[in-house]
């Protein structure tokens, strides 16, 4: 596929882009900083520096050549087969709250609007675990039930998570009118390969560090796999998916975590001894999502 990927230079984006390139896709990365890769398929990566909050820049990139080679046939500018939208202020407390909200909501509107108007039929956008209102709550906020699935209420208190909830509503509305496939990814805490050695020993000593992430995580390479599965599965309309690996990010069992952190929280079904509370069952059922990078194997390696 010919893919426009926004935010490909970021922590999550660069791994997802690398995964897509390895599988033969061509990627034009729209970002404020360029992405340089040297792995398989890197010759199919191009960059365009643009601001997603400027509708004119987004529309221009959506209608542009990815590279000089696309001028050779003399058949005009090719259309994108898919748009993957990851560009955003990536979390709370980086910019002012209203600027975080403005960039994330306006940028998402501009990207989806341009994609739909240019006839793109597959749009994937990054939502967040924070939509459930737990990650950036003031004080401790527990899930309403376990495991947390996509039907769990999304009532956050902060500007970042609010922007993600608004983006989901925006995407749903665009899908209603266009009929395109628009999939939102409620991405959990992203771990790069080097993060296992750097961060997980502390999580093992103090499991409470992972409470705000519902004790879950997603390996950046498995996130790339999730994006690729979304590209290959058509006809779902508008859907949101939790994106997490299969197990807890701490060395405690499901029952131990419930006793220690979630006493009184309803558990709505039987769970495995190390099954993530941030359930990825929907992604597995509808997309054949199959994460491979368990932290235990990674840390041991």
Automatic annotation (TrEMBL):
SUPFAM superfamilies: NAD(P)-binding Rossmann-fold domains (SSF51735)
Superkingdom of source: Bacteria
InterPro entries xrefs: Epimerase_deHydtase (IPR001509), NAD(P)-bd_dom_sf (IPR036291)
Domain NAD-dependent epimerase/dehydratase: 3-199
Pfam families in the cross-refs: Epimerase (PF01370)
Listed name of the protein: Nucleoside-diphosphate-sugar epimerase
Source organism per UniProt: Roseicitreum antarcticum
Lineage: Bacteria, Pseudomonadati, Pseudomonadota, Alphaproteobacteria, Rhodobacterales
